[in-house]
Amino acid sequence: MILRGVDLHIDLLANQSMASDHERLLALTAFDDTKAGVKGLVDAGVTAVPSIFHHPPECLPAADAELHHLTIPVIDLASDSRVALVAQVKAAAQAVGFFQVVNHDVPDDLLAEMLASVRRFHESPVETKRAYYSRDHRRRVQFNSNFYLFQSPAASWRDTMFLQMPLPASEEIPEACRAVAPEYARQVQRVGRALFELLSEALGLDPSYLEEETMCLDRVNIGGHYYPACPEPHLTLGTSRHSDASLLTVLLQDTVGGLQVLVDDDKWVDVPAVPGALVVNVGDYLQLMSNNRFKSVEHRVVANSVDSRVSVACFIAPNPSSARVLAPIVTGDGAVARYRSTTVDDMFRYYRNRTKALNGTSALQHFTI
Ligand code: OGA
Ligand code: NI
Question: How far is the CA of 360 from the centre of ligand 2 (A)?
Fold first, then answer.
């Protein structure tokens, strides 16, 4: 069977009754072959969410979900008191694993321009984007829909452009982002350093500890997400439940909202859009290094039928080709390591090869003692 053209592709995708793995694979392949992502489906006029994007009901937001009143802390990085600031960061990293930072000194117009440039990329002609369509992790610029399209139980209503910064030559950066991504990456690196210092102090260590131990601030992976408005948001998710394979993730979101954090194993809390704020979360590698003191918490993005949403996730993580070993920091009387020390390479490979990557058990369990 030759899978060609958007019409055939939508016919296949629209077949809600498809049952077999083989049919699902065909539909996934047909979708992937368009290299146009979810935005391509929306532009072609789909009015129903194709079955490859259907998530099981237990993974979807319940209409009568119990509201959790916890608020994600907003931390003022310009606080006068270092002691108070370290205490706030420590409390947030321990309790929720998520916080927002304000007064981080990244200019508002740079934040706005970064969001606009990601939108520009995703809203550019499909021929422009197709040139970047790839899941080859060695490529420093990639555009795709659902990095784990063929491994995940259900696809998500999202497209992403990845940039591994810094790129050796700025001409490699898609034109839509060329003028802004390098400066944005530099600013995130600076904020990342400030956060590493605070987190190191919160662990009772020298402020330079996390940066020196991980040597990962020279490299920022940017994921520029685009969540098209969804005709049937109750059937799918923008991003399914996951934790991040990073030390820290610094996320910039627009005003649409949809990001939620899991607390107490079964309650979802909104991370509201706070103007000018950056959302920070602890990733799995930092949970390991902090020996479980800091929590890498699961989160997801719900779909909505009204607006398309843009977010820019910067993953701070060591280069997988480095020979670094990530080791739990064990301090205090009677403390024991909860994880085995692991090379970045091993960790990266484990995460990459894990299938059915999302929903459920933490990949970190593989590294527990
Ligand atoms: C991620 C992520 C959330 C968002 O990229 O890992 O969780 O709001 N993104 O896009
Ligand atoms: Ni995430």
Answer: 14
Q: Closest ligand 1 atom to the C-alpha of 244? A: 6
At a CB cut-off of 8 Å and minimum separation 6, what does 365 contact? Answer: none
Q: How far is the centre of ligand 1, averaged over its atoms, from the C-alpha of 313 (Å)?
A: 6
Amino acid 19: pLDDT: 57
Domains, the chain, ordered by start: 32-367 (2.60.120.330)
C-alpha 334 – ligand 1 centre gap (Å): 37
Write the residue with the smallest CA distance to atom 9 of ligand 1: 313
The span from the CA of 363 to the CA of 300, in Å, is: 16
Instruction: Read off the pLDDT of residues 94-115 as tens digits, 9 standing for 90 and up.
Output: 999 999 999 999 999 999 999 9
The verdict on the CB of residue 195 being under 6 Å from ligand 1 is: no
Q: How sure is the predictor about 168, in pLDDT bands with cuts at 50, 70 and 90?
A: confident
User: CA of 83: how far to CAs of 80, 90, 199, 202, in Å?
Assistant: 9, 11, 12, 9
